[in-house]
Amino acid sequence: MRIxxxxxxxxxxxxxxxxxPKPISVIAKVAPTTSLRRSLYNSSAHFQREKYVFDxxxxxxxxxxxxRGLRTAKSFSHYPSVIVSECCEGFExxxxxxxxxxxxxxxxxxxxxxxxxxxxxxTHLAQFHAISFAMQQQAPDAYAQxxxxxxxxxxxxxxxSSFVDFLxxxxxxxxxxxxxxxxxxxxxxxxxxxxxxxEYGQAMVDCVQNRDDTVICHGDCWISNILYRPMPTQRNxxxxxxxxxxxxxxxxxxxxxxxxxxxxxxxxxxxxxxxxLS
Length: 278
Hints:
46% of the residues lie in helices and 13% in strands. The chain is of the alpha+beta class. It has one domain. The strands form three sheets. Strands 1-3-2 form a three-stranded antiparallel sheet, covered by helices on one side. The protein has a three-stranded antiparallel sheet with strand order 4-6-7, covered by helices on one side. The model is unreliable at 1-10 and 235-253 (pLDDT under 50).
């Protein structure tokens, strides 16, 4: 009788500890509060866009993939988990789980990505863009409903002269970088950049207005918006479909294999997939 009571007490203790609060690490993304900064960054529209992506677009994409039986390795789920978000005017925030606490890190901004990392980024972008193409054919009404809410927020003509200057300065930085440490072929690249410099703003307007072969894009796909962590090694040579990031590695992972997460979906848009690749 005492043994049974002891087990009951242990079970009750386990339940008690299981119900205790557990600390979690989170990231709070908060909009600026000053009117000047809010106007400069169009804060309200961009926080609403990111909330819409996490509340509507990505969950709908996830359901579409699940309904078609895609294995985890072949589906796109490379984004952070959002706990809660709010987008009342002047009070916008997004609370998401801290990926750094899960072992994710930034790529060094001053170093080019390795070939394997570029291939991995392109593979995941292809998975993401493929959902749009598939939905256009297999669930056109649902896809149209999503796209109707994705109005362009940045490259809306006429572009303000200060914004055009900002874009041109970015190209100038690239040209100066090539000139400081010239290598074979850099001269020709610099010449093309000089021509592109004056066309940059209008070229982006044309890209976002083009309705041919469009997808839902991340919109701001650069090195600081991608986190990585080393991929867990597989056990007993079994590929369960959860750890291969879309590659067929024949029951083992290379030492440099990584998992990726794409951050900052504030300028997601419906446009040519070239925007995410440029």
